[in-house]
Structure formats: structure tokens, C-alpha cells
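Our consortium's second objective concerns turning raw sequence data into structural hypotheses that experimental partners can test. To show how far this objective has progressed, the report includes one record in full. It was chosen at random from the queue rather than selected for favorable results. The single chain below, 228 residues long, was entered without modification.
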Amino acid sequence: MAHSDIRETAPRVLIVAEVRLYRDGLAATLSACPRLSVVGTCATQGEAREHVRRLSPDVVLVDMATRESLSLITDLRAAANASKILAFAVEENASDVIECAEAGAAGYVAADASIEELIAAIERIARSELVCSPRIAAQLFGRMSERGEPSSGESKILTTRERQVLDCIRQGQSNKEIAQALNIAEPTVKNHVHHLLEKLEVTTRAQAAARAPLSSARRRALSSRAIG
């Protein structure tokens, strides 16, 4: 595939960061990657809302050091149904990740992530895939345990296959990886993801992973796998 063809199909990225030197440096670095297309940068919530409306980016990269970043994410999520929001420079602990997910971020990149990891996260988020490290997965499961077990109504809300897909999402698996793990077609995985998001009344995979409780046995199994 020609260089120009790659650019045409690359995820369109908007960068929101308060510090100009940091914002411009990040834009220059990401622009050097032919698999991404940086369509704009901005510093404030009002500018971000206008840029999202005008540019329709695939991914909005939000620096969490920006003032009122969670409010900004919530605002952008309400204004841009098609754009995926990626929280950048997140302290990798369960509380911060859950806050980002509940605000409307589709994923996160830790504060100590490399440029390569950031680029990979942008590409995965653009494909509506969740990125979650084994360590943070273990923390999230522990946090879910503190919230209590699901009621009988909650446990029946998803089909068996949808619960299997949700377990895979919690492990950070892509649609392709889920299809291979469950021996089903990738379009079927997309349908299951769509249905379980509707049933859980969330809009992103990150929100589903953070909000929906696990059974005790499944939580222990996945936590052990993440830690081991």
C-alpha cells in the first residue's frame, strides 16, 4: 500500500492538551507516523468541542493534566457520538481508570507509556477495541468485588455468549482475538458487543468493563491470570 493510501485510511486524531509546547511536540511526533493523521490540536474545552464538531476526528486524545479533564471528556462524549475519546497520561490505578471510563473515555494510556504504546492504543481505540493491561485488570476486578455481587436481575441481563464476550473485553482482547478465542466469526463478535453495550446501558467497551460486575468464581480466575 502506498504511503498516501495509508494516510487516507489512517485514524484521524485530535489532540487536547493545555501546555502548548507539549501539545505541539506530541502532534509533531504522532504526525511522523504514517498510520495516523493528526487533524488538529487545541487547549480548552470550548475549543475541543468546536474542533470535534468541525473536524469529526476518529480519536480525541485528551491529556489528563488538562484542567477539568473529566468534565471535558463527558462534554466531548455527549457532543461527538462517532469520536472515540482516549485519556492520555492516566495514573494507572483502578480509581483513575474507572473515573475516565465513567466520564466517557473509550480507553486510556498510562502516564509512563511509550510513543509506540500510544500509537498502538490510538489504532485499537479507532477500531473500537479496549486496551487494558493485566495489572490494571486485576485492580479493576478487586474494585468490582468491593461494589458487591450482581443481583439476580443483573446476572440475567446478558446471554451466556455475551458474558463470554464481556470477559474477553475485560482482558483487553480485540474483536479478532475474541473471535478466535470463542471460535465465532468477527462480525458476530461485533454484534454481541453492540448488544451487550445496549443492555448494560453504556456507550463504550471501557464503561462496560468498569461497571458490569463479575461472578465471584470468574473474578478470581481472571484476577489470578492477570497477576500470574
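The partners drew two points from this record. Residues 148-156, 214-220 have pLDDT under 50 and may be disordered. The longest strand covers residues 84-90. Both points have been shared with the crystallography group to help prioritize constructs.
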